[in-house]
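User: Can you help me understand a structure? I only have the sequence.
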Amino acid sequence: MDAGTRRPRRDGLSRRQAITSVGLAAAGLGALGTGLVLRLPQAAGGADPAEGGTPSPTPSPTPDLFAAAQTRIEAYLADLGDRITLAVRDQVSGVELTVGTRPFQTASIVKVDILAALLLRAQQQGQQLTATDRQRARPMIVSSDNAAASALYQRIGRVNGLTAANRTLGLSETTPNVHWGMTKTTAADQVRLLAAITAADGPLAPASRELILDLMGQVDKAQRWGVPAAATPQTTDSYVKNGWVPDDSNGSRWEVNTIGRLVEPGHDWLVAILSDNHVKLSDGITMVEKLAKYALGELRELPAVTIP
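Assistant: Let's start by predicting it. Here is the structure, written out as tokens:
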């Protein structure tokens, strides 16, 4: 059992890449809510003449290529035949993709949010984590320990504490619950959380970011499913936190969520997949892994973008 109730390996880039919104009509996705939102980088110029260089064109994916990727990924999600949403951001190219806006129960992925809130609270108070806090943080992330999560949730002030921290972290679609596992969130908000804990210019201090990523990079082998399934031989760093729980309000069908980061040459992927209505836990794991592999496979095929 993973959630707090039965109901229901390195710092990111310091600059925000310039991106251009592309309005793309989305086909109906049933329980997914609205369709896909896709942002892509602007074409970048070559060397700056002020620096003595000669401007030269830089290759950039065209809207047509992104639209084609949209169509394929959208169709793939529709074919999965279950309730599932996806958000992806590449912190190198600035490509950002979201399918579905429906909020889901977090289960244990909220433990990353709790740890970020704990570290932010210590920063704001000019303090370090206590030895006890550190002792609890490790099992909370590495082995998804629920007792440790409950204790640290109490430490941050539960609903009010997490709500305040999320404002600083940039989350706008997450609703904390008195039972931490029943917190509601969206895939897009989970990518915002991942961005906040990887960005060198984000609200968390370097040591805080390092601690979170270090623990997400050491998750127990039995729990290293989900986002890491999309890694390739070129992937140098992999971070994950998963959440899974049977939903008593839905015939004990499983909610299965995965959030994580994959770093590889030319890419720094932040990925969040939220889903529910799975008859078996293994069904949910298979589905989120298939989606992670497919979506990143499509996006890796897009032409490389050089950011000056």
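Now, to help you interpret it: Residues 19-104+185-300 form a domain with the Beta-lactamase fold (CATH 3.40.710). Confidence is low (pLDDT under 50) at residues 5-36, 42-59. Let me know which part you'd like to focus on.
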